[in-house]
Design goal:
alpha/beta, five-stranded parallel β-sheet, Rossmann fold
């Protein structure tokens, strides 16, 4: 299963990649929202999941979630954050059928969240 992982913290991006690959996920890393949006546009339909930092630069994860919702993409979404989610982010996540995971998280919780939103 291919997961687009977007976080502007390089150390966390590397850590998440190291956690997910042994679990059978193919990781497409993105260092910011612009790169994530480009990867989603060019890699679709191979991207089955997105794992996004809510505070992703430059505009947060909302534009990517909005694209998934508006275009009806069959992409499972997990939003991660070290702080409280905005109402707008929660609403978009609900529309996408996604999940929220708080940072810091246990590796098993991350894997479980991704598997829970994976398209059938």
């Amino acid at each position: 299963m291919t997961v687009l992982v977007a976080d502007d913290e390089p150390a966390l991006l590397r850590l998440v990649t190291r956690l997910l690959e042994p679990e059978g996920f193919r990781v497409l890393p993105a260092a910011d929202g612009t790169e994530a949006a480009a990867l989603l546009a060019t890699a679709d339909p191979c991207v089955e999941l997105v794992l996004l930092d809510a505070g992703l630069r430059p505009q947060g994860a909302d534009p990517i979630l909005k694209t998934i919702a508006e275009e009806g993409l069959r992409v499972g979404a997990v939003l991660m954050s070290g702080s409280r989610l905005s109402d707008a982010a929660r609403g978009l996540l609900d529309v996408c059928g996604g999940r929220y995971i708080a940072k810091p998280f246990a590796p098993d919780d991350l894997v479980e969240a991704l598997r829970a939103v994976a398209p059938a």
